[in-house]
């Protein structure tokens, strides 16, 4: 790994892309209503959540994920195809972790696929951004 090949503006944009994907993914028209039902949450309960804490930690963890992925991709041969592939594979890895935790929490397969699918899509996009922005 050559840290001089980590493009930090690309890491920041990749991290922000997680917000965009999440905003679409968890919106009521796509998977939001199903996710709320399987999480046993209501819109009112979600509205009462501490937005600063939720979005602040989401930003931090998205940045950590994007930086970690960028470090794995810190190679002169990395391109958009390899970046997206590595992101997809990282998404499969996180899908597995989400599935394990969710199975022990007695969550539904729909819940697992909603959350795991978000990881796959968002990490694939993060990898594509990092691979493209060389």
Describe the SSE topology.
Elements: H1 8-25, H2 28-39, H3 43-47, H4 51-72, H5 80-104, H6 109-132
Helix pairs in contact: 1-4, 1-6, 2-6, 4-6, 5-6
Description:
- With 134 residues, the chain is mainly α.
- It has one domain.
- It contains six helices and no strands.
- It starts with 7 loop residues before the first helix and ends with a helix.
> Largest beta sheet, briefly?
none
Distance between the termini: 15 Å
Question: How many discrete domains?
Answer: 1
Strand content: under 5%
- What quaternary form is this? single chain
Radius of gyration: 16 Å
H-E string: HHHHHH
Using DSSP, what is the number of strands?
A: 0
The helix tally amounts to 6
Which structural class do the helices and strands define? mainly alpha
Q: What best-fitting shape do the alpha-carbon axes yield?
A: globular
Query: What's the average pLDDT?
Result: 96
Helix content: over 70%
Poorly predicted regions: none
Relevant terms:
mainly alpha
Give me a quick take on this structure:
This protein is 79% helix and 0% strand.
């Amino acid at each position: 790994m050559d840290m001089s090949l980590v493009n930090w503006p690309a890491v920041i944009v990749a991290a922000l892309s997680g917000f965009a994907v999440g905003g679409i993914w968890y919106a009521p028209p796509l998977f939001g209503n199903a996710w709320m039902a399987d999480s046993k949450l209501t819109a009112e309960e979600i509205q009462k959540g501490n937005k600063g804490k939720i979005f602040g930690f989401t930003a931090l963890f998205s940045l950590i994920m994007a930086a970690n992925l960028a470090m794995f991709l810190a190679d002169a041969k990395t391109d958009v195809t390899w970046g997206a592939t590595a992101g997809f594979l990282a998404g499969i890895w996180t899908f597995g972790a989400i599935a394990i935790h969710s199975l022990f929490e007695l969550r539904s397969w729909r819940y697992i696929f909603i959350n795991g699918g978000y990881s796959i899509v968002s990490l694939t996009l993060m990898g594509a951004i990092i691979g493209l922005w060389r």
